[in-house]
Design a protein that fits this description.
This protein is mainly α. Helices cover 58% and strands 5% of the residues.
C-alpha cells in the first residue's frame, strides 16, 4: 500500500524534476499506483511504452523517463558517497566549551572534499548539483580562497574571519548608499584605532594578532606553501 508520504514525494518529483503540471500528475496517481510506478527508481526502470500508456504525450513521457533516470542516478551516487568514508570527509565540530588544540580547531573548520580519483563520477556529481544561495556566501567563499593565495600563512579561521569582514563592509557600504541604514560604520567611529591594517579586495581591515597561536608545525607550513605555489604556477600556464 502506498503511503501519503510516498505520494507526496512522487508529486514533488513530477513537479520539480520532471516539470509535469501538478494537476496532471495528480490525475495520474491512481494509474501510477496500479502500475506500481510510485517512485523515480521504478519509473527509471520502466519501458517508455508503459509510461506512454499513462502519459500519452510522447515528449512528456520521454521527459518523465529522463528525469526519473537522472534522479535515480543522483540518489544512488549520494548513498554511495555517504556509505564510503573515503568519498567525502568532514571533520567533527568541537562541542561547546570543549578545549581543543589550535590544529584540531582549524581541522574542524575544513569543508568536506570530494574524491578526485574518478573524474567521470566527480563531473557527473557536479553536473547534477543544484545550489540555492544569495550573494553573501559566494563573496565569503571567494575571499576565503583569495586569501589562501595572497596570505598563505593565514589559517582557515583567520581567512573566514577576514572574508566575513570584507562581506560585512560591502553590505554596510551599500546599505548606507541606499539609505537603508544611517550612521557611521564601527571603523569610522574609531573602533580598532591603533590596530594594524591589511587590504583585501580594496577594503582596509583592522586586524589583531593571535600571539602564540600555532595551528600547525613547520613541516606542514612548508608543505602548504609548496602546494599553493604549485597550484598558482599551474593556473598561470596557458
Amino acid at each position: 500500500m502506498t503511503s501519503v508520504a510516498e505520494i507526496q514525494a512522487l508529486l514533488r518529483f513530477f513537479s520539480q524534476d520532471a516539470k509535469v503540471p501538478v494537476p496532471l500528475a495528480m490525475s495520474k496517481v491512481k494509474d501510477l499506483k496500479e502500475a506500481c510506478l510510485t517512485t523515480p527508481e521504478s519509473l527509471s526502470k520502466t519501458p517508455l511504452p508503459t509510461i506512454q500508456s499513462i502519459f500519452p504525450d510522447e515528449k512528456l513521457a520521454k521527459q518523465i523517463l529522463s528525469a526519473a533516470k537522472r534522479t535515480s542516478k543522483k540518489r544512488t551516487s549520494s548513498s554511495t558517497s555517504t556509505s564510503s568514508p573515503s568519498k567525502r570527509v568532514k571533520n567533527a565540530l568541537p562541542k561547546p566549551g570543549e578545549q581543543i588544540s589550535p590544529a584540531d580547531y582549524e581541522a574542524s573548520l575544513a569543508l568536506p572534499f570530494l574524491d578526485t580519483s574518478n573524474p567521470a563520477a566527480l563531473e557527473d556529481e557536479i553536473d547534477n548539483a543544484v545550489f540555492h544561495t544569495n550573494r553573501a556566501p559566494l563573496v565569503v567563499a571567494f575571499v576565503v580562497q583569495l586569501i589562501k593565495y595572497i596570505m598563505p600563512s593565514q589559517p582557515l579561521s583567520s581567512r573566514l574571519s577576514l572574508a566575513q569582514a570584507v562581506m560585512s563592509m560591502g553590505a554596510k557600504s551599500k546599505a548606507l548608499n541606499l539609505g537603508i541604514q544611517t550612521g557611521k560604520a564601527a571603523g569610522d567611529e574609531g573602533w580598532g584605532e591603533g590596530q594594524p591594517k591589511i587590504k583585501v579586495m580594496g577594503r582596509e581591515l583592522r586586524v589583531m594578532r593571535r600571539w602564540g597561536y600555532e595551528w600547525h608545525d613547520q613541516d606542514e607550513k612548508e608543505e602548504n606553501t609548496t602546494q599553493i605555489k604549485k597550484e598558482t604556477d599551474e593556473a598561470g600556464k596557458p
